[in-house]
Automatic annotation (TrEMBL):
GO CC, any one term: NELF complex
Protein name: NELFB factor
Residue numbers spanned by region Disordered: 534-560
Organism listed in the record: Nesospiza acunhae
Protein's gene: Nelfb
Pfam families in the record: COBRA1 (PF06209)
């Protein structure tokens, strides 16, 4: 069969006899035993000392095959070791010459299972396998599969489609893993999407595999970046010429804060981009557009604004704050830069610094004023209400300016985490329409639902629920499946805190439609089951006997 043929594949070309030859010899001879003996002598291991040893093994019942196999395995191991050694010794061109000669001699046996490992090993150590041999490997599924990643890289380099086929399932797996975290049923303000350290994330299976696939091959790295771009994943940038920049940013992400020393260092990198090297900006912006980087920059911006209030300083007077905005803006502009291939820093809108950030600071001041007012002895005028109006400029900024929107959303996460219900309800209406619907993005909703668990007691209040659900979530549920999922996640977690009447209307409003995906239906069913368990059962309701008469105990269906 073909399996037999494979076993001896390529031996004839090397002038080595194989099973077919033996068959032919035996078919055409008069004394088969003599023919076999001669075949053994001609093709056996040619060592004089073996002449006596082999019959001795025969006496012990060791089959010749077993003996030859063990000699063969031993020799193969030695050969593999030798190949790896050749790859490291002597002058570069000499060692590669030796390996190329070896490949030339052995390649015809590449399909022979017992020899294949040796051929593969030779190819693995050749930085440039001859084109013709790569093509033969590529054309044969089994050979391609058996190849070392070092050889595959050489194949992928000129076959983007093949590389795409290999990378694509990994990227899909990566996206799926990230989505599972964003939509996880465990909602908490302590543990969220951004909790794992950079080191932990680097040890993730997908990142490890991709890093291994790319090795030091810049061309493959660029191809990977392009396929990431097609899928709009902005998180995997594993190898990079901007190593030091990444390293420094990595440390900030670990601390979830950009301190002054590191800010100076990062600024040095940005200012150091020389004329003619602008393309590096493309790489820096890719690194900065990683959600973990944006998260760190946005959190640091909010912290900086608070410090400025304490110091009575305006945003435009703080170089550190301006640097954070510059990096945010580079990160946000990454895809545009890659798409247009125009490598220059996006222009920062002056209004962001002179109007928007002071507005955010005024909200913080409003909070302080309100708190102080509450503590003052009130005269006839009665308690001062919390300011409820939102400046129109704030809403406009959130709709039209990406960076303002990102910082605005992080400010809202910040006040939620501080359990500042008043500020939260005041600004919430501004989130219904935001730049490219950022307020309905998975990362924001994941973080918001986590922080809302800190306000869980407010869910008993009609006003709070109406603002949060009717005023915000439900405005997008029907057009955005992900929002539907996040609301259901939140209710699964907090349903016991919500006033029953409100819960009932929410359950109606959130019922899946024909268009809803499996995830929504599944969550809705889980929620319905929980609510079912909360309702008092009909039996309990009817079984409230009046106090005077002792009723005869009749087993009710519920307890029977």
């Amino acid at each position: 069969g073909s399996g037999q043929a494979d076993m001896y594949a390529g031996l004839q070309e090397l002038g080595v006899a194989n099973g077919e030859d033996l068959k032919e010899t035996l078919t055409n001879c008069t004394e088969p035993l003599k023919a076999i003996e001669q075949f053994q002598t001609e093709n056996g291991v040619l060592l004089p000392s073996l002449q006596y040893a082999l019959p001795f093994l025969d006496l012990h019942g060791t089959p010749r095959l077993e003996f030859h196999q063990s000699v063969f395995d031993e020799l193969r191991e030695k050969l593999l070791e030798r190949v790896s050694a050749i790859a490291l010794e002597g002058k570069v061109e000499e060692r590669y010459k030796k390996l190329e000669d070896l490949l030339e001699k052995s390649f015809s046996l590449v399909k022979m299972p017992s020899i294949q490992p040796v051929v593969m090993c030779v190819m693995k150590h050749l930085p440039k396998v001859p084109e013709k041999k790569l093509k033969l490997v590529m054309a044969d599924k089994d050979l391609y599969k058996a190849c070392a990643v070092e050889v595959k890289r050489q194949i992928w380099q000129d076959n983007q489609a093949l590389f795409g086929d290999e990378v694509s399932p990994l990227l899909k797996q990566y996206i799926l893993e990230k989505e599972n975290i964003l939509f996880s049923n465990d909602i908490s303000f302590l543990q969220n999407f951004f909790s794992p350290s950079p080191k932990t994330r680097r040890q993730g299976e997908v990142v490890q595999k991709l890093t291994q696939m790319i090795g030091k091959n810049v061309k493959l790295y660029d191809m990977l970046l392009m396929s990431l771009h097609d899928l709009e994943i902005s998180e995997i940038c594993t190898v990079d010429p901007c190593h030091k920049f990444t390293w420094c940013l990595d440390a900030c992400i670990r601390e979830k804060f950009v301190d002054n020393k590191r800010a100076r260092e990062l600024q040095g990198f940005l200012d150091g981009v020389k004329k003619g090297q602008e393309q590096v900006l493309g790489d820096l912006s890719m690194i900065l557009c990683d959600p973990f980087a944006i998260n760190t920059l946005a959190l640091s911006t909010i912290r900086h604004l608070q410090d400025l209030i304490g110091q009575d300083t305006l945003p435009r007077e703080s170089p550190d704050l301006l640097l954070l905005l510059r990096m945010l803006s580079l990160g946000q502009g990454a895809w545009d830069m890659i798409d247009s291939q125009v490598f220059k820093e996006p222009k920062m809108e002056a209004e962001l610094i002179t109007r928007f950030l002071p507005l955010l600071m005024s909200f913080v001041v409003d909070d302080h004023t309100f708190t102080v007012d509450q503590k003052l002895p009130s005269e006839e005028k009665g308690p001062i209400p919390y300011p409820s109006a939102i400046p129109e400029a704030f809403t406009k900024f959130l709709q039209e300016n990406r960076i303002a929107c990102e910082i605005g959303l992080y400010y809202i996460l910040h006040i939620t985490k501080q359990r500042n219900k008043n500020a939260f309800l005041r600004l919430l209406p501004a989130l219904v329409e935001t730049f490219s619907d950022l307020a309905f993005s998975d990362i924001f909703l994941h973080l918001l639902t986590g922080n809302l668990t800190l306000l869980s007691d407010e869910f008993a209040l009609e006003e709070f629920c109406t603002s949060l659900f009717d005023g915000f979530f439900l405005t997008a549920c029907s057009r955005k499946e992900n929002v539907h999922r996040h609301v259901l996640r939140l209710l699964l977690h907090l349903h016991h805190k919500v006033a029953p009447a409100k819960l009932e209307s929410l359950q109606k409003a959130l019922e899946p439609t024909k268009q809803s995906g499996e995830a929504v239906k599944e969550l809705y069913n889980q929620l319905s089951e929980k609510l079912e368990l909360r309702k008092p059962s009909p039996a309990e309701v009817t079984e409230t006997p009046s106090m005077e008469l002792p009723l005869p105990t009749v087993p009710t269906p519920a307890s029977a």
